[in-house]
Specification:
disordered C terminus; three-stranded antiparallel β-sheet; 9 helices; alpha+beta
Length: 285
């Protein structure tokens, strides 16, 4: 895997080409000071709303009418001086608010390559759904995936001496309720779709077996009609969501290499050159 393959999978690099196939999104450039903030130790949310801390909009259940309050991010239980040390990014704050409004009021965030899926535990709704800048900051600041994007984006690339300039960006994507059983990861090697895995491979979805032929046909058609030879690399990985029979949505593009999770396969299988027929499984285990 070469650095160019990684750079080709930056969201802003492929989104203009496949915008009609994926969720509406907004890309915001990240100032260097914000990148430094993400890499700094500790979790202190930036000041917002003219310097006043904002209560996170997260709830245990978004539609729950119980008495459980939102976590209070105010300085009520902190030293009086604590908020003075919180960073401020007013321009980015305003851009995020505008993007959230443009995308319907709910978004999920990611950086150039990765979404902070590993940080969903810190959100009281246990998801990546964000309705305000503070929600975005909390997820990004808590994520090892985001830190990897910022510090080791070219991990396992063979051309380590090649210099590339990465401009870090925040991507906000329209929030969509996606059924996890209908997400699939597809592996393309030398312009050939060689394998398909269910995205949430540790779960069993009985209906996948029943719909196997239809799912396979939809993904193969989607690849040939919309993806094949339209991406600059001959080998890559793409994720799709099957919204309904005959309707697929492109979710993400990833490098064809060990930095990408092979899910139900191993990279030895995927790179061996041996036929994978019968192993491009969309069934749970």
């Amino acid at each position: 895997m070469k650095k160019k393959q990684v750079m080709d999978c930056i969201f802003a690099a492929w989104y203009p080409r496949f915008e009609h196939l994926t969720f509406p999104s907004v890309v915001l450039p990240l100032p260097g000071a914000f990148v430094s903030y993400l890499l700094a130790d500790g979790i202190v949310l930036p000041n917002s709303d003219s310097g006043n801390r904002h209560k996170s909009s997260y709830k245990a259940h978004p539609d729950d009418d119980s008495d459980v309050d939102d976590p209070d991010w105010s300085d009520e239980d902190e030293d009086d001086d604590s908020s003075t040390h919180a960073p401020e990014f007013p321009e980015l704050d305003a851009q995020i608010k505008q993007a959230i409004a443009h995308l319907g009021g709910k978004v999920f965030p990611k950086l150039n390559w990765s979404a902070p899926k590993d940080a969903s535990w810190i959100a009281m709704n246990n998801s990546l759904q964000c309705t305000c800048p503070e929600d975005v900051y909390l997820l990004l600041k808590s994520s090892d995936f985001v830190t990897h994007d910022l510090t080791q984006p070219f991990d396992r690339c063979e051309d380590e001496d090649t210099e590339v300039d990465v401009q870090y960006q925040l991507v906000l994507r329209r929030w969509t309720n996606v059924h996890p059983g209908m997400e699939f990861r597809c592996f393309v090697k030398n312009d050939k779709l060689i394998a398909i895995s269910q995205r949430h491979h540790s779960n069993f979805f009985a209906y996948i077996s029943d719909q196997h032929d239809g799912i396979l046909a939809d993904i193969v058609d989607f690849y040939h009609q919309d993806i094949e030879k339209k991406f600059p690399d001959r080998s890559f990985v793409f994720d799709v969501y099957r919204k309904k029979p005959g309707k697929l949505v492109l979710v993400d593009l990833n490098p064809f290499g060990e930095v990408t999770d092979p899910l139900m396969f191993t990279w030895d299988e995927l790179t061996s050159g041996e036929p994978l027929e019968g192993e491009s499984s969309t069934e749970g285990e």
